[in-house]
Amino acid sequence: MGRRLGVVTDGAFNAALSVRLDPDVNVEDVRIGDFVVIEGRDNVFFSIVADLQLKVTDPGLSADPPREANELLTRALRGTGTYAVVQVKPMLMVPRPKDDFVDPFIRPQPVTTIPGHFALLRQATEQDYALVFGQDTHKGPLFSIGKPLTADIPVAIDLRRFIERSNGIFGQSGTGKSFLARLLLAGIIHRNVGVNLIFDMHDEYAFGKESEEGVWVKGLKQLFPTRVQIWSLDPNKREADRHVQVGLDQIEPEDVLLMAEELSLTAKAEDTIGLLVDHYREQWLRELLAMDNEAIVQFCEQSGAHPESVRALRRSLMHIRRRPYIVPQADARAVEEMVALLNQGRHIILHFPSDATTIDHMLVANIITRRVREVYQRQVEKYQETRNPAYRPRPLMITIEEAHKFLNPTVARQTIFGTIAREMRKYYVTLLVIDQRPSGIDREILSQLGTRVTGKLTEQADIEAVLTGVANRTAVRGALESLETKKQVLVMGHAVPMPLLLRTREYDEAFYRDMQRDVGEHEVPQATPETAYVDIFGEPEEE
Amino acid sequence: MGTQQPIGEIVETTSLYLVAQRLDPNTEATPRPVQPPNLGSLVWVHVPDGGRVFAVVSYGTTTGVDSQRRAVVRSHGEVLDDRVYREHPQLHRVLRTIFHAVLVGYETPQGTLHRHLPPQPPPLHYAVYPATPEETQRFSQDMRYFRLLLAVTSPVPGEQVTAAHVREIARLHPGNEEWVERAARHIARLLKRDYERLQAALEALAP
Fold it and tell me: Which residues pair with residue A429 across a beta bridge?
C-alpha cells in the first residue's frame, strides 16, 4: 500500500476529482503529473495529478493571514483552517480483487465511473506501475524508458504498440530529444519489434557523440554493429557501409516543387516542369540541366514553354546538380537492396554529410522514402494476396528530424511523409517525427500520431499542437507545462495505457550493457487477450 | 480522591452548567480572600448513581452576601490588600464567592469516561471537588469536549474558557508541548469557519 495522501471530497466524471490532502501530507510532496491511485469501493482507479490548489475554510484567513510571530497559530491552521486540494483525473480502473484472488488476465480499462466520497488517495506502488505499464523483462516488447519523478521505479512502454502508429518526439532544443530518440530506437533494435530507417540529418544517431554534459556517448552503430548499417551520402565517410547516390532520373517534379521556397522557384515553375515531363519523361531534369541556350529555345518552340521560365528553372535546379551525391543515373537497385536489408532485420541509418542543407535533407528523404514505401506496398499487397507469413514485411519505422519541413500544412498533403502519417500502418510503415516546433506540423498529421513523447515546450502554440487529438488534454496540460528543461518527458498515447511524466532513462554504461546483452533474442510475443483478439478479428476500430 | 477537600457547593444546577459557592478555606489563624478556582480548571461532583460529573470552571465572582449592594471600602492608610482581611476576620461571612463550571463529561461507576453532557444535571447542594493533575490529564486525552467549552456564551466567551483550560493543563504538566499543539489543532478544526475566534483562542494560548 502506498502512502496515504487524502480522501476524495468532490468532483465530476467529466472534470476531475477533488482530493483533500491529509493534514500531515506536505503539498510539496505531490507533483503535477504524478501517477496516483484511488481506492474505490469496488474498483481501483489509476489517476494522474492534474492540479494542486490551496484553500481556506474562512475567507478571513486570506484577508488577515497569521503573522510570522504566531507560529502556534500557523501550525494549528495547517490542515485545519488551511488545506490543500489535489485535482486528480482517473484514467484507468481495475476491479478490486475479491477474496485475495488476483486475476492475472485482468488489465486496467478506461474509466467508466468514479469513486465515491471519501475514497482514499494514495501514492502508487511498484505493483501499481507494473499492473498498469507492465514490466521490462529485458526481452519482449516492454521497454523501460524512465522513472517517475517521485519514485524509483522503471516504467516501460510497449514498443510493439509504439511502432504500430506514427509517433512524435517533441521538445524545445536542449531538452534531450535526440537522446530520447536514441533510447527508443535502441529499444526497437534490441527487442526486434521492427526495423528502422533513420534519416540522420545532424549526425546524431550513427556514431558516438559528445553530450551536453561533455560525455562521449555511443551511437547506434557502436551499440549494434552488425544490426545497424550506415548508408552515407558523403562519399568520403569511411565508416559507412555503403555510399548512396541519387540519380537525376529519380527526382520527380513533386520532389522539386516541395522545395519551391528553398530553391526560390517562380510561380510558373510547376507549369514549366509539366511541359518538361511531357517531353522527356523521367529524364526531364537531366535534360533540362544539360540544355544550352539554343536547346532551350528549341524546346520552347516545340512545347510552348516560356524561355525565361525555363532559364530561371534551370538556374534554380542547378543547385541540385552540384550536390556531391547527385549523379546523372544512379543504381536503381539501391532501394531494393535497402528494403532487402530491412527485410532481414537490419536497421539503416542514412547519414548526411555535415554540410548538408535543408535541400539535401528534403530531396533525399523524400526520394528514398517514396521508393521504400513503394516496395513495401508491393510486399504488403503480395502478403495480403497470398496470406503467406513469409511475405509479411517487418514493421518499418522511418525517423525524420525537423519534421515540420516535411509535414507543414502546405506540403503535408503532397509529401510521402504526409501520406504515411495519414494511412497509419496499412503498409507496415510508420514515422517517428522529431521536432522542436510541433506547431509547424499539419494538424491532421498531429492528430494521427499514436504515441507522443514530449520534453519541455514553452510556446503555447506548441503545447496546443502536441495535445492535438489527445484525450483528457486539460488533465495533462498541467503536467506538460510543469516539465523541467532537461531529462523530463511526458509520454502519452498508444504505447502507454495512460499519460505519465518521467525522468528519462540514462543513456550510459549501464544502458549500453543492457543493450548489448541478448540482442535480438526476441521472445515470441505471448498472446494476451488483446493480441488474441487482434489475431482473430483484426485491429479494433479507432474512436 | 477520598482525602480531597471539596472547594464548593452547588447552588444552581442545569444540564449545561453548574453554579457553586466557594467553600471557605480559611483557618482561623490567617484570614485570606476567598477566591474561585482557576478559570479553565477541571472540577467534579459525585452523582447519586455513584459516578462523577466533570466540569470546567468558566466564570468566577465575589460579591457581598446581599447581591443588591456593593461591598464597602475597607482600605485605609497602610491597610491594603490582604491586610484588609486580617483586620476584618469577619469579612468572609459577608462576602460570597461564586463560580460557574460548564459540564463536559461524566464517569460511570465502572470508571468509563464520557466526554459529552451527562444525562442528569449534578444535584443541588452536592460538593464540588477539584480534579487532580492525573485526573485532568486522563480526562483531557480525548479533546472532543472542547466543542462544549467553545459553545459557552456568557459571561466569558467560549474561546477564552477553552484557552484558559489548555493553559491550565499546560501549567499542571510542564513540557507537554505535543499535547498543547494537538489541542491547538483541535481548536483550529472546530473553529475552521470562524477565524476571528480561532485567532482569539490561539493568541490566548501563545506563551
Answer: A396
